[in-house]
TrEMBL record:
InterPro entries reported for this sequence: GH (IPR017853), GH_1_N_CS (IPR033132), Glyco_hydro_1 (IPR001360), Glyco_hydro_1_AS (IPR018120)
The name this protein goes by in its record: 6-phospho-beta-glucosidase
Encoding gene per record: ascB
Keywords: Glycosidase, Hydrolase
Enzyme class: hydrolase
Keyword Hydrolase: yes
EC number of the protein: 3.2.1.86
Top-rank taxon: Bacteria
GO cellular component: cytosol
GO terms, biological process: carbohydrate catabolic process
Taxonomy of the source species: Bacteria, Bacillati, Bacillota, Bacilli, Bacillales
Catalytic residues in the record: 378
Organism: Niallia taxi
Amino acid sequence: MTSTFKFPEGFLWGGATAANQLEGASNEGGKGLNTPDVLPGGKVRLKVLSDPGFDFELDTEKYTYPNHEAIDFYHRYKEDIALFAEMGFKTFRMSIAWSRIFPNGNELTPNEEGLAFYDRVFDELLKYNIEPVVTISHYELPIHLVKEYGGWRSRELVTFFERYVTVLFNRYKDKVKYWMTFNEINSSLHMPILGLGFAIQNEEDRYQPTFQAYHHQFVASARAVQLCHEIIPGAQIGCMLVYLPTYSVDSNPENVLFALQEEQIFNYFCGDVQVRGHYPAFIKRYFKEHNIELDIQDGDLELIKENTVDYVALSYYMSRTEKKDKKPEEVGKGNILGGIKNSFLKASDWGWEIDPTGLRISLNQLYDRYEKPLFVVENGLGAYDKVEEDGAINDDYRIDYLREHIKAMGEAVQDGVELMGYTPWGCIDLVSASTGEMSKRYGFIYVDKHDDGSGTLERSKKKSFDWFKNVIATNGEEL
Ligand code: BG6
């Protein structure tokens, strides 16, 4: 299909991943144990992430741990990057595992083997003119920082993070021009284990400790922006939000107000601090009503104000529909944020509602609010794939999903949105973050690895591989 719009010159087409979901080699190269290493595989993971009291201990008798081997990118990165290059990737989004660089998180000197691994990966990407886009912290924290410091509850993590990013910027200053600080920073409002490195123990934890931890991350992020600009002139560093445009179920003003308030706290709170450089007005009342009093040190607010991000990266998978007094049976089954089922939308096999127009709405809302370049660094369809007898994988459902979302981005560009690029999530099959499953596949490249841990790890191309290759080759004109 030929589209009617053009994406900007130099548009960054590519794919996105995260260290813990693809590298494997969890105890090689001097790496320390980290938070995803202790998360069990299978649907029990979602329960662990949502229920109070998780203790971050390994229990190999009871659970499997798919992130330990993942898809073994650590040893197979050359083969994988060659496939990305064949697809014509202009960019590759990946993350660095903090625990490879500082195994405990708080050492004074970094682990050379970890640094050298990422050197090899960046060199391989650059060999094919693929621009690395690096997430500094993607749902991963050395376990020592969790156990000894309580994760981001502790102000000391700001110092450790500063040490970590200083090492990264100095080491990779000639290789990496695009950075982002915390993956989906706003998601910790629902699942602090992944982003903040502590488990909710009781309802009170949702407020004071969570927002204090957020303040620490805002300070750390601002400091990273400052250091990035100092150490790598010309580099760009962004924030990264999971964005769900929030619709009211109807025009009842009570429901509209509720949807707005949910949107403010979830979609905008973090971005407002990182992009505008100050706490938004609406949060004052929220803090008061939830007895939150932040410990803000001298200089924090100035640092945040003076070191705002260069661009806004976002993941977009679904929209959210809200109603003030919803009944449990109205909640959509796959809605991680608890919105109600939207009768206008179909859902994925995991119940994630599919809404391409929601992406156009999101891009318009974010650009109106922040007037900063936007970068869609995650989007995609998690689906069960079937390997035919001849080895073919006909993932037309994935092509349909991506086509509609690319069309929505094209429309947003015509609406006036400044868009830097598009890196669909899990361009190669990898371990799901929320369920620890391999069978929830997003890739253009199939990996022979299964939920029970079996498989050869062999890579093969799905039908979407050639389709996306052509999308990139025509800069989005042929969809
Ligand atoms: C985003 C995360 O929330 O969504 C990724 O940044 C994650 O790490 C992706 O993998 C898809 O979610 P899931 O649970 O299907 O893997």
